Amino acid sequence: MTYPLSSDHRALQARVRAFADRFLIPHEVHAELNDGAFPDGAEAAARAEAARLGLCAMNMPKALGGSGLSTLEQVLVSEQIGRVTNGLGWLVTTPARCLAEVATEQQLETWVKPTIRGERHECYAITEEEAGSDVDAIRTTARRDGGHYVIDGEKWHVTSANQADYLVVQAKLADGPNAGTHALFYVECRAPGVRFVRTPAYSHTYAHHHPIVAFEGVRVPEANRIGAEGQGMAFTHDWFRYERLMIAARCCGAAERLIEEATAFAKGRIAFGQPIFDNQSIQFMLADSLTELWAARLMVYRLAEAHDAGEDVKILHGQCSMAKLYGSEMANRVADRAVQIFGGRGYMRENVAERFFRELRVDRIWEGTSEIQRSIIAGQLAKRGQEALIG
Ligand SMILES: Cc1cc2nc3c(=O)[nH]c(=O)nc-3n(C[C@H](O)[C@H](O)[C@H](O)COP(=O)(O)OP(=O)(O)OC[C@H]3O[C@@H](n4cnc5c(N)ncnc54)[C@H](O)[C@@H]3O)c2cc1C
């Protein structure tokens, strides 16, 4: 590793790599052939080990029971978890930071601390059929009714809703002094008026589904509002920024695994009397992949350190877009080349390249598509100039 990581950081990296190698990667093919599920007993073992290693709620403050890892440490963990397919690494959890930052005492006890302890599970309901990239176009409303809000709307792609106890729902305020602004609310999955409409099938094979969820006159007490009226969009932007960096980190891990496995295969596979690795065409694919991985990794590590140093959040916003854009597109190129290197084997679902080829595609879509990242970056370039963004 050429990046100057401390011995503690390298030790963390090694621990999480060993965890992924021993507790997650061996179960990938089973998961692929069984709707994303671990074999019997394996999930409990993996969860226990993840908890022992302090990987649950790794971004949450220690005072609340989280691991309180620095951003650089979280990136190192996410990178190793990114080496795993089928979402098996999702038992490493990172609840949205705002939930803890603005929580009331009651919210801490009801939602935040149980989530940190792994006893309760959350999901995020922001996107709608007519509002994905353009979040401000959401039609879900929260209307005041005495000490309650009444929520109406329908959310799409609600990741993990099938495993969650509660949703964090983004809605537009329908009335009052802040009408038209956004707010986030805790909504129990079993609250009257919450209806799971259907669960579409997606390209990847994950145990975490992405159902469409309707909210039909759902009454939530004012105490379920997260922060103040009007803060919803700022919380979502904070979450996007964080997730974009972690997606970039996971993409680096995926690329690392693909390069490792494709290189090993290329060295062992004999065609026309020699390892296919000896062909320049194969070497060039691996060389391009390694070079691009290094560039992405340097961006991710540097950006994580910038977060830890408390650098200007407006600049970090543009830089997170760059890391997510480059990292996700890099990993997709690497996966495509890996499939090619594996040949027919690369088209088999038991092959890691085939799985990543499908799974990594969404990293160019969720938490803001590549086009949206580019427009954020271009907007920042126009507003702040090159030097502010890349030094
Ligand atoms: C597997 C999966 C899980 C998800 N999980 C969640 C979740 O848990 N919670 C949640 O709230 N959402 C979730 N999402 C939603 C995800 O964030 C959105 O799909 C994403 O933001 C894109 O929105 P959209 O699908 O509506 O695409 P659209 O906004 O309809 O975009 C369609 C196309 O138009 C392009 N486009 C749109 N606007 C512009 C523009 N201004 N300039 C150039 N091109 C543009 C886009 O880049 C894209 O190529 C998930 C999505 C998927 C696929």
UniProtKB/TrEMBL annotation:
Cofactor(s) listed in the protein's UniProt record: FAD
Pfam family membership, one: Acyl-CoA_dh_1
Organism, as annotated: Tistlia consotensis USBA 355
Source domain of life: Bacteria
Family: Belongs to the acyl-CoA dehydrogenase family.
Gene Ontology terms, MF aspect: acyl-CoA dehydrogenase activity; flavin adenine dinucleotide binding
A Gene Ontology BP annotation from the UniProt entry: fatty acid beta-oxidation using acyl-CoA dehydrogenase
Full protein name: Medium-chain specific acyl-CoA dehydrogenase, mitochondrial
This protein's UniProt keywords: FAD, Flavoprotein, Oxidoreductase
Residues annotated as domain Acyl-CoA dehydrogenase/oxidase N-terminal: 7-119
